[in-house]
Amino acid sequence: MLSVRGLTKQFGEFTAVNDLSFNVDQGQVYGFLGQNGAGKSTTIRMLLSLIRPTAGEINFFGQSLFTHRKEILSQIGAIVEKPDLYKYLSAMEHLNLFARFGGHRPDQKKHLLLLEKVGLAQRAHSRVGTYSQGMRQRLALACALVNDPSLLILDEPTNGLDPQGIADMRQLIRSLCKEQGKTVLVSSHLLSEIEMIADRVLIIHKGKKVAEESMQSLTEKAGQLKLQALPEKRYVLEAYFLSLTSQ
Amino acid sequence: MLRLVWISLFILCSNWAISASIDPATLLAGVKKKYDLVRDYTASAQLKTNVLFIKAPLSQVTVYYKRPDQLKIKNQKGISFVPKGTVNINLNNVLGLRNFEAIAAGTALIDGINCEIIKIFPLNDEEDITRATLYVDPARLLVVKSIISTRESGTYQISMQYGAYVSWGLPDRVWVEFNTREFKLPKGTTLDYNNGATNVTTPKGPQKGKVEILYRSYKINQGVSDEIFR
Amino acid sequence: MFASILYTELFKIFRRPRTYISFGAIAVIVLLVQFALRVNGTEFIRFFTDSQADTFEIPESQILNGYFVCVAILHLILIHVPLLIALIAGDMIAGEAQTGTLRMLAAQPASRTTLLLAKFSASTIYVILLLLWMALFALGGSLLLFGQEDLVVFRETDLHIISQQDVIWRFVAAFIYAALALTMIAALALLLSVFAENALGPIVATVCIVIVFTILQQLKVPVFEQTINPWSFTTHMLGWKGFFYVEKTSEGVTINGSIENPIALVKSGAILIGYTVLFVFIAERVYRKKDILC
């Protein structure tokens, strides 16, 4: 589905992403983890052609992003960081817009079903300027899904969501993957969430890959670590993550 | 041959005798009597403006006249910049002066017509006209050309050509020449587009302007309302 | 794809309340000018004709007609309308960067070139609609309020009287030319927008550039007249006035349907098109390679 080789991005003297390579298989939920400033957003932006890599290859569906951008991006839906939307447009108008961006005709019935799925059907025609952060996050997800993409790239999809919203999002991502066969690349700080949904995880630190494992393998490795006894509970993944990225 | 010489001498002497004997006041009275045949008229005409700084189309105008001194040129369907001196087309402004001195100033050939030159000096200081020179065709008692100086509007040279309405003393064609002031607006006020044509050097200072009025038809002595001249 | 993106850009422009401020502003400005001329029009005309008042009968009430008022209003095209154009065009990229929607747009399948050209085209359509609106008020409204007569156009060293039968096509041509000039302004604003991440910068910069070059042009300083002015786009933006300068015969009579030095107009139009193409080309080149970090 997605193959990245030797991906590098330099901003002047500063190297944000350094020789990053990873694979995402079809039908997986792929977790993308790293501290603030590790290079996650930069990597995601390169995958979406928002930033030009200094070096490296990005291949989607066996095709190079640099030569088949239009075909590739028409199969990808994405949320990049905080989802900024047009405050003066309604949810339905956003979906119509994104449908046209993808070269499709707006389908009101289909869009309404999609809004129901993300819990926004009641506010379909309200201006986004009146939405809460959580509602905007859900609308952003709906916009990412409107053209039925085969790959979803979600950067912090649970930002601003309440606990129920987080649970719903988690459930939605799982169903997209398991029931609809979509591939999902999720970047998140909520390690517990990644732990619950990801099949495979990539951890980067200071622009470099420090681990790329299946969740099962990560859990086993973490279990082999000698953890200091601490008064509060710690999740396994968090412990392993911190051990990798604290150097 | 000798007979020819005697006949030529006789003609020359006759002419000299006639001109030497022309009384300007009498000539002017004759001309005025002719022009007084017309109480009023409404004429349709074409006005052509030839002034350096004015680009104007050919205008269809109506000329209204009412004795003794009312004359108005109106463009019914458009805009014309009519020189103020055109009011002097109406020679009654000159011929109707009460107190003036007229002096014969010789003859001149104008468009093949031997004209008597009469210089007129109003004696009343309140008159707008300060002096006038009339070139009169003594045979037809018509003014062929006039140069009129006014206090308010400067000096105008008016030339007239007669045709169909000669018996009324009304011209077919009138040319009015006058001095114009330089037309120059302050820089930046008009935000002109520089199309290169404005780079052509326009002469500075006062210039001469000319209008030509070509009369098509007259309605004579059929009444003209005073409202028109207000 | 281009048509879809163009549709979405137009949709966004006309769903935004700010767009209607421009239309409202045009209506208000035009009405204000019409009101001012209604009240003080005769004095305004005397300013131009005073030097000739002793020599000619000046038909001031006739000169102050709908066509004259419309020409006066069209001078707004130089400063006021470019501001309204820059408000929309300058916001095209920088505004989206500022609100964060640019990254969402740029991640769509449409190429950046397609997106930029669609935004430029949408700006152009906005320019045309704004001018049509202006024509409605400036020409239609002025004719209703002031009536119809010959048009008198004043230049620094002469004046042109155009028969009313010969006027309308000139206004049509002038508005078309104005659309060309303002499209160039939209291209400039779009170019500046590509470099910024805040819409205010390109908007202010566009207006400042227009003001500075207009001042340079109007100062008529020889060194500027020889070097900058022939190539300054504000010089050529005034080309719409060229449609109201007529040729005359040697006898001084204007030639109906004529334009004084039409070659100059063609040249000015070509320069404006050249600038438009240049600005859009540079904007496309820069935007294509730009890293979108906002």
In short:
The complex is a heterotrimer of chains A (247), B (230) and C (294). Chain B is built from three helices and twelve strands, in the order ααβββββαβββββββ.
Descriptive overview:
The complex is a heterotrimer of chains A (247), B (230) and C (294). Helix content of chain A is 36%, strand content 25%. Chain A has helices at residues 40-47, 69-73, 91-101, 108-117, 133-145, 163-178, 191-197, 215-224, 236-245, and strands at residues 2-11, 14-24, 29-33, 55-60, 63-64, 76-79, 151-155, 183-187, 200-205, 208-214. In chain A, a hairpin with a 2-residue loop joins strand 9 and strand 10 (208-214). By secondary structure, chain B is α+β, with helices and mostly antiparallel strands. Chain B is built from three helices and twelve strands. The mean pLDDT of chain B is 86. Chain C is elongated and about 70 Å long. Chain C has 13 helices and three strands; from the N terminus they run ααβααααααββααααα. Chain C is mainly alpha-helical and 294 residues long. Classes of the chains: A alpha/beta (247), B alpha+beta (230), C mainly alpha (294). Chains in contact: A-C, B-C. Chains B and C meet through strand 1, strand 2, strand 5 and strand 11 of B and strand 1, strand 3 and helix 13 of C. Strand 2 of chain B pairs parallel with strand 3 of chain C.
Note the topology.
The complex is a heterotrimer of chains A (247), B (230) and C (294).
Chain A lengths: L1 E10 L2 E11 L4 E5 L6 H8 L7 E6 L2 E2 L4 H5 L2 E4 L11 H11 L6 H10 L15 H13 L5 E5 L7 H16 L4 E5 L3 H7 L2 E6 L2 E7 H10 L11 H10 L2
Parallel strand pairs in A: 3-8, 3-9, 6-7, 7-8
Antiparallel strand pairs in A: 1-2, 1-4, 4-5, 9-10
Helix pairs in contact in A: 3-4, 3-5, 8-9
Chain B lengths: L1 H19 L3 H12 L4 E11 L3 E2 L3 E8 L3 E6 L6 E2 L8 H4 L4 E11 L2 E10 L6 E9 L4 E9 L3 E9 L8 E10 L26 E14 L10
Antiparallel strand pairs in B: 1-3, 1-12, 3-4, 6-7, 7-8, 8-9, 9-10, 10-11, 11-12
Chain C lengths: L1 H14 L1 H33 L6 E2 L2 H4 L2 H9 L1 H14 L4 H6 L1 H6 L5 H35 L4 E4 L4 E4 L5 H28 L4 H20 L2 H6 L5 H5 L24 H28 L5
Antiparallel strand pairs in C: 2-3
